[in-house]
Amino acid sequence: MKEIVIATKNKGKAREFKTFFAKGNIVAKSLLEMERFTPDIEETGKTFEENAALKAEGISRYLDIPVLADDSGLIIDALDGRPGVYSARYAGEDKDDKANMAKVLEELKNTPMDKRTARFICMLAIAIPGKETLFRTGYCEGRIAFEEMGVNGFGYDPIFIPEGYSKTLAELLPEEKNQISHRKNAIDQLEGLLGDLSHV
Ligand SMILES: O=P(O)(O)OP(=O)(O)OP(=O)(O)OC[C@H]1O[C@@H](n2cnc3c(O)ncnc32)[C@H](O)[C@@H]1O
Ligand SMILES: [Mg+2]
C-alpha cells in the first residue's frame, strides 16, 4: 500500500486527508501517527504559502521523503480578511476552536447577513527532496452564521454556511463537506502529482 506523509498535527485535517486518499488506495499518514520523532515547525510566515512551505519542507528535509502540508484558514470580508493566516490562534496561543469562533461571532455581532461573506482557503505545499516545492490552492465560498450550529467537522465549521446551502459545514455529513470543501478543491488539483508524492 502506498503512503503519503501529511505534515499536520490537526486531527480534523488528518481525518479528511485519510478519506480523500483512501479512494486512490493511498494511506495518508499524519504526524500524529508517526512512530519517529518529528520536529515542531513554527508557523512564522505571513502568508498561507509561506507557512505551507515551512511545514512541508521542514518535515521533508527531516525525514528525507516527499511530504504534503496544508496551511488553511478562514478569510472574512467584513473583518478585512481576518482571521486569515492567524486562524488557528485567533483567540490565543492554545488554538481553542470554541474561543476562536466566539471571537469571530462577537466581532460580527452587528454585521448583517449580506455582509457576512467569507471563504475558507486551503494551501497545499508539496515538498519532494531535491525538487522545487509545488503549491495547489482550493477555496470554499460562504457566509458566517450568527451562532454555532452542528457538531461535525472541526475548527470554524459550526459557523460557516457554504454558498448554496442553509446549513453550516458542521451540520453537513462529512461526505457532504468533502464534496465542496476548500481541501477537496485543492486536492482535486494534485492529479498526477500523487504518484510523485507516495513512497514505500
Ligand atoms: O498546522 P497544522 O498542524 O496542520 O494544524 P493547524 O490546526 O495549526 O492548522 P493551520 O495552521 O493550517 O490553521 C488552520 C486553522 O483554520 C481552521 N480550518 C482549516 N480548515 C478548516 C476546515 O475545513 N473547517 C474548519 N476550520 C478549518 C482551523 O481552525 C485551523 O486551526
Ligand atoms: Mg498550524
From TrEMBL:
Report which reactions are catalysed by this protein: dITP + H2O = dIMP + diphosphate + H(+); ITP + H2O = IMP + diphosphate + H(+); XTP + H2O = XMP + diphosphate + H(+)
Domain of life here? Bacteria
Instruction: Give Gene Ontology CC terms.
Output: cytosol
Cite the EC number: 3.6.1.66
Residues recorded as binding substrate, renumbered to this chain, are T8, K9, N10, K11, G12, K13, S72, F154, G155, Y156, D157, K177, H182, R183
One annotated GO biological process: purine nucleoside triphosphate catabolic process
Mitochondrion among the record's keywords?
A: no
Which UniProt keyword terms apply here? Answer: Hydrolase, Magnesium, Metal-binding, Nucleotide metabolism, Nucleotide-binding
- Spell out the InterPro entries in the cross-references: dITP/XTP_pyrophosphatase, ITPase-like_fam, RdgB/HAM1
Any one GO MF term held by the record is: dITP diphosphatase activity
Coiled-coil zones: none
Q: Which cofactor does it need?
A: Mg(2+)
Write out the residues that bind Mg(2+).
Answer: E42, D71
The UniProt subunit note reads as follows: Homodimer.
Protein name per UniProt: dITP/XTP pyrophosphatase
Q: What organism does this protein naturally occur in?
A: Oceanobacillus bengalensis
Q: What taxonomic ancestry is recorded?
A: Bacteria, Bacillati, Bacillota, Bacilli, Bacillales
